Amino acid sequence: MNRAVSCAALAAILLAACGGGGSAKKTAALSATTTSPASTTTTVAGSTTTAAGGTSGATATTKAGAAATPTGGATVNGKPASSYTPPAGATPAKPATPGTYTYDNQGKGPFGPPPAKSSLIIDPPQGTQQGSTNDMGSSGKTEETLDYRPEGVHVVEVKLTAGPQTYDFVGNPPPLAAPTGVQPGQSVDFTLSDPKTNTTIQVHIDFVRMETITIGGQAVNTMVIHQVGTLSGSLKGTQTSDSWVSPQYDLFVKTHATANVQQGAFAVQSDVTSTLEKLTPG
Q1: Burial of 70 (C-beta count, 10 Å sphere; 0-12/13-18/19+)
Q2: How far from 280 is each of 121, 171, 216, CA to CA, in Å?
Q3: In 156, 192, 194, 214, which residue has its Cα 20 to 30 A from 145's Cα atom?
C-alpha cells in the first residue's frame, strides 16, 4: 500500500484523541477482526459507489526464524515487521504528489462541528522521506514524516498541536505501517510514544477489502482499512476509523472516525466524516 494507509492510521487517532474535532483522516464500526475481500455499496457525499471484488495474487510472507519484535512494537500479520518480505512482483510505494488537498468535513467534534473544509499539505520528498501537514484550523494541526522503503512505508514522526499542547510521537525504530504488497485479509500492529507527555498509542489496522468509489465525479479504486487506536498514559481511550485509501493517488479519499478519550477528569467524544473534494492538489 502507500502513504494513505499511514496517514489514515495516525492523524485520525491523534487529532480526535486530543480534542481537535476529528482529523481529515477518519470511522464507524467494521469488525476489528481480519476480513476477507468483499463486495459492498457505499455512498460518499452524495456520490454513488460501485463495489469491486478483492485483489488476487501472491501473499506477503515473513522470513523464518525472525528475531523478536524490536522496540516500536511493529508486526505484520502477527509476526515481527523486521521479518516481512513483500510478495514477488509487488511495487514499493512512492511519495505522494506534493501540493494542497481539500477535504469536506461533517459530524460532531468534541466542542462542536468540525470545520466545513480542511487542508492536507504534502511537502516535496527529501530523499526517501516526505512530510505532510493536516491543518484543521483552530481545531488543531498534525505534522507527519514518513519514510518510503522497499518493504513499505515507515512512520518517522507524528506531531500534533492542539491549543497550547503539543504531542510528538515516534517509534524506535520507526514502525512499518504500510507494507509493500499488502492484501485484504492482512493486518498491521505498531506502537508510537511521546515520552515528554507520557502518552502511548497502540495501533491495529485490518486491510479489509477493495472498493471503487466516486470522488469529484471520478471513479477511484480504493482499499478499505479498519483501524483501532488505543491511548494510554496522559491520554486514555479509543479511536476507531474506517478509511478508503487510493494506492494509485497515494491518498485517503474518505474517512469516518469516532473517538472517546479522557485526559484526567476531562472526557471528549467525536464522530467525523471527511471526503476528498478531488484527486489532484490545488
Answers
A1: middle
A2: 12, 31, 10
A3: 214
Number of domains in the chain: 1
What range does the domain containing 35 cover? 3-52+70-276
Q: Is the pLDDT score of 214 beyond 80? A: yes
Half-sphere exposure of residue 253: CA atoms within 13 angstroms, side-chain side? 29
Does 78 reside within a domain?
yes
Quick check: 111 and 21 in contact, CB under 8 A?
Answer: yes
Digit-coded pLDDT (tens) for 119-142: 999 999 999 999 999 887 766 788
The reply to whether 63 falls in a domain is: no
| Angle subtended at Cα 43 by Cα 40 and Cα 48, rounded to the nearest 5 degrees | 90
Task: Tell me if 261 is assigned to some domain.
Answer: yes
Long-range (24+ apart) CB contacts under 8 A made by 130-133 are: 130/3, 130/95, 130/96, 132/3, 132/7, 132/96
Whether 61 maps to a domain, the answer reads no
